C-alpha cells in the first residue's frame, strides 16, 4: 500500500464520515459544520488527482462561501428544535426496502465503474492546471462558459427583484 | 536546499526533518505574535502620548505578552450554560487551524519555503476563508446576542472583502503570468508590483485590513457597540486561540503583501549584498508597522458604509484595474 492509498482512505473516510454525521445530527448548524468536513475531504481527493485548481476552488466556493451563506440563512430564520418531528417513521419494511435499494445502488455503481477507462493519466497537467483550464474555457468551451455567466447574471437580477418586491410590500404595510 | 528536500522520496528521516522545520517555524511565528502584540501596544502608546507596557521584563516591557499568555493559561475556562457545547469547543479550533495552514505556501526567501504549489495565491485566500466558519460558529454557539451580531458582521465583512482582495491580486497574476507565489516574486526582479500596480496595491491593502478585522474595519469586535463581538463569551485559552489566529493572520497577510507587491526577498537597487532574508524581514516589518499605524489613527467605519465601500468603490475599481492591466500587458509586453 503506497502513501497515496493511505491518503485516499483517510480523505474518503473524512468525506463519508462528514456526510453520515450530517445525516445523523439533529441541529441544523451542526449539520453545516459536518458538511464542511465532507467538502474538505473531497477537496483533498482532488489534490490526490493532481487537480490543484479544482481542489482550491472547492474550498473557496463550497467550504467558504456557500457554507457561510447557509449558516446565514439558518441563523436568520427561526427554526424550532422539535425532536418529535425528526423521529423516523415507517416500520421494518420501510427500513428493509431502503437498505436493499442502497445496496443495489452501490453494486450498480461498482459494476458500472469497474471496467471504466478514464483514458490517460492527468497528472502531467498538474504543473499548469490553471493555464490549461483557462485555455480550454476560453477556446473550446467558450459558449457554455458564456451561457453559464448569463444564467448567473439572471439569477443575480432575479434575487434583486425578489428582494426589492419584499421591501416595497413591507413598506406598504 | 529546501527544494531538494521537498522533491526527495518520502522516508522517516524526511518526516523528522520536516517536523523539525515545522516546529522551528512555529516557534518563529509564535515569537512574532508575542512581539507583534507588544509592538502594537508600544507603538499605539507612543502615538497616543502614553508610555505603554513598561513594567514586566525591563524598561520596554519585553516579557509583558509572555506574562499575559501565562495569565490566560491559568484563567478559568468558562462555558456558558445555555451555549451549544460541542460547537463552542470546536469553534476556536476551526478558526485557528487555517491560519497556520496558509503559512505553508508563503515563500520567505528563495531557499526557505515549505510548499511550492501552482495555485499558491488562491490556496491562501481559499483556506483563510475557512476561519470565517469558525468565527460564525463561535458567535452562534455562545448563545449571546452580541456574539451572534459580531459573528454575522464578521461573515458579511469577510465575504464582501474577499472579492476585491482576489480581484486586485488578479492584476498581479496577469503581469506575473502565474499564481505560484515563487514565480510572482521572481517576476518582480526588476520592478516591484507596487510600482507596476499601484491601484491594485491600494485596493489589496484596504481589503487586507478588512480581512484582518482591524481598525477601521474592526466591526466584528467593536468594543463600544458589541462588548467584544463574536468572542465575548470566551475566556482563558479558547479566547487566546481566537487572538492567536488573528495575529497569525497578521503575520501571513503582511508576508503576502510583501510577496505580491514589495518584491519579496529582492533587494533595493545596489544593496544586493544584504541577504534576501533581511530584505524580506525589513519589508515585512514595514507592512506590520503600517497596520499598527492604521489602528492607532483611523476611526471605525459604520456597518452600512463598510458594505457600500466594498461593493460600490473597491469592486468597480479592481475591475477597472484588471482591464487596464490586460490592455497594458497586451500592448506593451
TrEMBL record, chain A:
Picking any one GO molecular function of the record gives: NADH dehydrogenase (quinone) (non-electrogenic) activity
Give the record's keywords alphabetically.
Cell membrane, Membrane, NAD, Oxidoreductase, Quinone, Transmembrane, Transmembrane helix
What is catalyzed by this enzyme? a quinone + NADH + 5 H(+)(in) = a quinol + NAD(+) + 4 H(+)(out)
- Identify the Pfam families for this entry: Oxidored_q3
- Transmembrane annotation, as ranges: 6-25, 32-49, 55-76, 96-113, 138-163
Enzyme class label: translocase
**Bilayer topology term:** Multi-pass membrane protein
Location relative to the cell? Cell membrane
Q: What is its EC number?
A: 7.1.1.-
Q: What does the function comment of this entry state?
A: NDH-1 shuttles electrons from NADH, via FMN and iron-sulfur (Fe-S) centers, to quinones in the respiratory chain. Couples the redox reaction to proton translocation (for every two electrons transferred, four hydrogen ions are translocated across the cytoplasmic membrane), and thus conserves the redox energy in a proton gradient.
Give the matching PANTHER family: NADH-UBIQUINONE OXIDOREDUCTASE CHAIN 6
The text of the family note is: Belongs to the complex I subunit 6 family.
Which protein are we looking at?
A: NADH-quinone oxidoreductase subunit J
- What taxonomic classification does the UniProt entry list for its organism? Bacteria, Bacillati, Bacillota, Bacilli, Bacillales
UniProtKB/TrEMBL annotation, chain B:
**Organism domain of life:** Bacteria
Q: What class of enzyme is it?
A: translocase
What this protein catalyses is: a quinone + NADH + 5 H(+)(in) = a quinol + NAD(+) + 4 H(+)(out)
Molecular function terms from GO: NADH dehydrogenase (quinone) (non-electrogenic) activity
Membrane topology, as annotated, equals: Multi-pass membrane protein
Where located? Cell membrane; Membrane
Q: Which residues cross the membrane?
A: 15-38, 87-109, 121-142, 163-185, 191-210, 247-265, 277-297, 309-332
Q: What is this protein called?
A: NADH-quinone oxidoreductase subunit H
